[in-house]
């Protein structure tokens, strides 16, 4: 006697963990934030608005360039997103993303034009996704870059329901004969430091480990910070794009470096020719309380600290000595503390090998002791 086959259970995409309706709702909530970045682009403008398969940007203005070079960078935020998830605050992490990519092209003198982002998550929570994108959009407005598109991907089973990661890419343009870089740097140039806003977006694996081992919760009030630990760790990365590019009108700026992974010395060496050494005087500034707290609480060796964290300097401009005061004044008018922190000299045998993150470059040496350390 034959039996009828058992009915197949109906399985939907939602059963598999992907909520298309929530995804559509998230996109709808993002629209206003993204549209704000299209109002005043540096050059050209966004074509076609929001929601196409590809972001379109009008670059007709590049016909007026003598020899335009496109500059591009891509990056993420790293494990700082774990702090945002733990604290359940998601509207500032976008500044970290924009700062990481935009300021990497600004250092060569490029004007950022447009950016795209990518958010992968375990579960789409529309309000959370909208908060992330709103932060990205506000940072894009600050940098003068258009957010032309992005992608939100739901990955159930790969990421936890409350987990997400973000990445982005930016494109900019610079005249070939105005390109900043090592070939412009000469002995006698001075180093102008631009203060960081805090940890920025590097070294969070070390930082999170230090505070976890010490048993510090993110809601713990820290007197030295004047706020909770979570608030301090989520201080947004400073976006230097407009102030840094503003120094070019002053003249005498030869190169810049963005102090990210690897610390000050390794990143500074990347913008020097092999024949030169940059000498940084630690005594010209005092790192913020968060840096000394990480050092003391975790017993982190000084060398490890300097190779991992920015220690209070987020960007350095290498400038002609006669332009230093004007460059400092230009940066400070934008509300960013700036100061001369060292100089460039001929390289000596005793200086050692390049410390430029495994790329060709000069040598950067840190001398002296930080004030108050």
UniProtKB/TrEMBL annotation:
<dbReference type="Pfam" id="PF00586">
    <property type="entry name" value="AIRS"/>
</dbReference>
<feature type="domain" description="PurM-like N-terminal">
    <location>
        <begin position="70"/>
        <end position="174"/>
    </location>
</feature>
<keyword id="KW-0547">Nucleotide-binding</keyword>
<dbReference type="InterPro" id="IPR016188">
    <property type="entry name" value="PurM-like_N"/>
</dbReference>
<dbReference type="InterPro" id="IPR036921">
    <property type="entry name" value="PurM-like_N_sf"/>
</dbReference>
<comment type="similarity">
    <text>Belongs to the AIR synthase family.</text>
</comment>
<keyword id="KW-0067">ATP-binding</keyword>
<keyword id="KW-0436">Ligase</keyword>
<dbReference type="GO" id="GO:0004641">
    <property type="term" value="F:phosphoribosylformylglycinamidine cyclo-ligase activity"/>
</dbReference>
<keyword id="KW-0658">Purine biosynthesis</keyword>
<comment type="pathway">
    <text>Purine metabolism; IMP biosynthesis via de novo pathway; 5-amino-1-(5-phospho-D-ribosyl)imidazole from N(2)-formyl-N(1)-(5-phospho-D-ribosyl)glycinamide: step 2/2.</text>
</comment>
<dbReference type="Pfam" id="PF02769">
    <property type="entry name" value="AIRS_C"/>
</dbReference>
<dbReference type="InterPro" id="IPR036676">
    <property type="entry name" value="PurM-like_C_sf"/>
</dbReference>
<dbReference type="InterPro" id="IPR010918">
    <property type="entry name" value="PurM-like_C_dom"/>
</dbReference>
<protein>
    <recommendedName>
        <fullName>Phosphoribosylformylglycinamidine cyclo-ligase</fullName>
        <ecNumber>6.3.3.1</ecNumber>
    </recommendedName>
</protein>
<keyword id="KW-0963">Cytoplasm</keyword>
<dbReference type="InterPro" id="IPR004733">
    <property type="entry name" value="PurM_cligase"/>
</dbReference>
<feature type="domain" description="PurM-like C-terminal">
    <location>
        <begin position="187"/>
        <end position="349"/>
    </location>
</feature>
